[in-house]
């Protein structure tokens, strides 16, 4: 019995020892697990803090994105406004360029008209001066020569000055027609002409109005009335310029140019002529034929009318001197 009890106790002690060892292992595992749990909790808290920080940064970025989108929308609207303004400015630039070209052509026509008018005035002055000189020389010839035969008016050829005057008048008329057509085109196209160009005084000075084209037999289109926009006008000497734009109506009318032909006193041929008078008649006819040939040669050459008139005056002086010499020769035998 005693051996059985001792055996039981040893067996129990071994079991107890094993249980104690197992509990120690369990406690150690628990402690290890607890340490791992604490470590994981710390890591979890760190991750939570990082997540909160990231969420805050995301909120900040979201606000910045919304602000950027708003700024982008505002910039887009401003871009559309600037593009529309750019298109309007391009249209205004095209209109100004068209007006500039029209005004340039008009100014060139006016300058050509003014230059031709000046040349016409100079030619008329030279014609008057030379005609006076020719009249004086012809009076001297008539006083010194007893007889001058009547010239045939039907066969009278035009002088170089008359030809130059007719050519200048034709060019002036063509320029007037061109200016009238240009004004009619501007009027029908409803183009506004500013007063800064000073076109109205030129048109009034030359009496150009709408009747000129009708007189010349050209078709005129009447303009459509429109309300003109006011612009800033410069100070003009024209008293009738109440508006800011030029009224082109009643501005075209032809300007007549008077050509004065030199009046030559003519002595009729007497019924009875002497032998001396017949000789003088033959000499005068010869001089006339030479003058006609010279005149035809001068018409073929392109010289100035003033120089041609001077040549004509010189020829008259030569003829006068020849008539004096002939009279002296005729008086010698007497």
From TrEMBL:
Coiled-coil parts of chain: 30-140
Disordered: annotated span: 226-334
Basic residues composition-biased segments: 283-295
Low complexity: compositionally biased ranges: 321-334
Compositionally biased residues, Acidic residues: 235-244
Keywords annotated in UniProt: Coiled coil
Name assigned to this protein: Uncharacterized protein
């Amino acid at each position: 019995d005693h051996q059985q009890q001792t055996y039981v106790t040893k067996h129990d002690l071994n079991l107890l020892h094993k249980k104690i060892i197992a509990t120690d292992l369990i406690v150690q595992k628990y402690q290890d697990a607890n340490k791992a749990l604490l470590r994981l909790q710390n890591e979890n808290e760190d991750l939570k803090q990082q997540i909160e920080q990231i969420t805050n940064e995301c909120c900040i970025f979201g606000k910045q994105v919304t602000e950027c989108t708003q700024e982008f929308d505002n910039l887009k609207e401003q871009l559309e406004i600037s593009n529309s303004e750019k298109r309007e400015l391009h249209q205004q630039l095209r209109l100004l360029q068209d007006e500039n070209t029209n005004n340039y052509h008009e100014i060139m026509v006016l300058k050509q008209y003014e230059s031709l008018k000046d040349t016409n005035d100079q030619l008329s002055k030279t014609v008057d001066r030379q005609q006076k000189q020719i009249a004086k020389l012809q009076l001297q010839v008539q006083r010194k020569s007893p007889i001058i035969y009547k010239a045939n008016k039907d066969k009278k050829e035009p002088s170089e000055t008359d030809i130059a005057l007719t050519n200048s008048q034709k060019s002036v008329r063509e320029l007037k027609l061109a200016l009238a057509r240009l004004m009619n085109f501007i009027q029908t196209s409803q183009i506004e002409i500013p007063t800064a160009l000073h076109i109205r005084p030129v048109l009034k000075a030359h009496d150009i109005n709408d009747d000129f084209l009708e007189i010349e037999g050209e078709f005129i289109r009447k303009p459509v009335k429109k309300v003109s926009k006011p612009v800033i006008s410069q100070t003009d000497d024209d008293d009738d310029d109440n508006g800011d734009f030029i009224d082109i109506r009643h501005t075209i009318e032809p300007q007549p140019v008077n050509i004065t032909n030199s009046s030559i006193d003519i002595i009729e041929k007497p019924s009875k002529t002497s032998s001396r008078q017949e000789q003088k008649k033959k000499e005068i006819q010869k001089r006339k034929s030479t003058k006609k040939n010279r005149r035809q040669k001068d018409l073929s050459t392109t010289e100035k009318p003033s120089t041609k008139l001077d040549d004509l005056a010189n020829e008259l002086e030569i003829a006068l001197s020849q008539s004096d010499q002939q009279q002296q020769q005729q008086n010698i035998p007497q």
